[in-house]
Design a protein that fits this description.
mainly beta, six-stranded antiparallel beta sheet, four-stranded antiparallel beta sheet, 1 helix, globular
Length: 333
């Protein structure tokens, strides 16, 4: 016999289905990867449907259609990010321990070119108008500009602090955070000069960053539990919303007009833009450590890498990653 609660739940689901209200997001699948190390940024290539995860001593890949995972596609030395380019045929990989970036074949992982860059290359992004890569040299207070045609560094931009994460507006501007100065830097990709530096007094240790198209806003994920939205032209704070703790990435789905901030506390904050101000539309329960990720713009499905964790050896240190437990959480509805 169906209880009153079961009947009420069924009726609610029927009403939601016919009213056009989206079904709440949740973890709908897990894709096992394995390997010995932790992880950093994840990127998604819509051309090949491959998700790439910087995985310490390796780059891992997952085809999200077939669910086939490759734990060691390419060698790495302290990998932070693998950026797909050339219609998914190539990857730009930052090696934080070797002070290099490599350009690799995306299918085989083979290194085509190695380029020396400045200290501790972390995030990187390709600015579409210039076609150049901008590499955040976190240990040198520089952003290195790599020409992907000549395979050489063609510019070094002093940013006045430790650059962390990167975003572009598609019109020539590159954005990064100075995590040690609580600031947002705007770089003109064509002139390779800093156009502006905006101090964000209410945003501690900004990490993840995303550009919100049409709104001309930069989303900053802050370690004091907020996402700050800044006008990209003026530096004025437009809005802020609450997020979880320990964020390390942020990304925007321009098709579905949603932003996502995954946090290490096991939450994914979903932010909508259907009203005048950005608003939190959902907070999805994920798993501890799932602090980076990427979205498939075609399906709206979000992919978050994480692993099984053990308590840190000392208080205040990072949790210990259990070897061979790296996985990808699939967030759908």
């Amino acid at each position: 016999m169906r209880t009153g609660i079961q009947v009420a739940l069924s009726l609610t689901l029927i009403v939601l289905a016919h009213s056009g209200v989206a079904t709440p997001r949740a973890v709908v699948d897990e894709i096992k990867i394995g390997g010995p190390d932790g992880w950093d940024y994840a990127t998604f290539d819509p051309t090949t449907h491959n998700l790439y995860i910087a995985h310490g001593s390796a780059i891992a890949s997952v085809n999200v259609l077939t669910k086939v995972a490759t734990a060691h596609l390419a060698d790495a030395q302290g990998a932070h990010i693998a950026v797909p380019f050339a219609d998914g045929r190539m990857l730009l990989i930052t090696h934080g321990k070797a002070n290099t970036v490599t350009l690799n074949d995306a299918k085989t992982g083979a290194v085509k070119v190695s380029v020396a860059v400045d200290s501790k290359p972390d995030a990187a992004i390709i600015e579409p108008r210039t076609g150049r890569a901008f590499v955040m040299a976190n240990g040198a207070s520089l952003v290195d500009v790599v020409d992907l045609n000549t395979d050489e560094v063609v510019g070094r931009i002093a940013v006045g602090g430790d650059p962390e994460a990167a975003a572009v507006d598609g019109r020539g501007m590159v954005f990064t955070h100075l995590e040690d100065h609580n600031a947002l830097v705007v770089i003109d990709g064509s002139t390779r000069r800093v156009r502006a530096t905006y101090t964000m007094n209410d945003c501690d240790e900004p990490s993840g960053i995303a550009f919100i198209t049409k709104r001309n806003l930069v989303l900053s994920a802050c370690h004091n539990g907020i996402a700050r939205f800044t006008n990209a032209d003026t530096g004025v704070e437009v809005a802020k919303v609450q997020i979880g703790s320990r964020p390390d990435a942020a990304f925007y789905d321009d098709v579905h007009k949603l932003a996502f901030v995954p946090c290490g506390d096991g939450t994914l904050t979903v932010i909508g833009f259907s009203s005048a101000q950005p608003m939190v539309t959902e907070v999805v329960t994920t798993k501890a450590g799932a602090r980076t990720g990427a979205v498939d713009p075609a399906s709206g499905i979000v992919y978050l890498p994480t692993a099984d964790l053990e308590p840190p050896a000392k208080a205040g240190e990072r949790p210990i990653v259990v070897p061979n437990t790296l996985k990808v959480l699939v967030i759908g509805s």
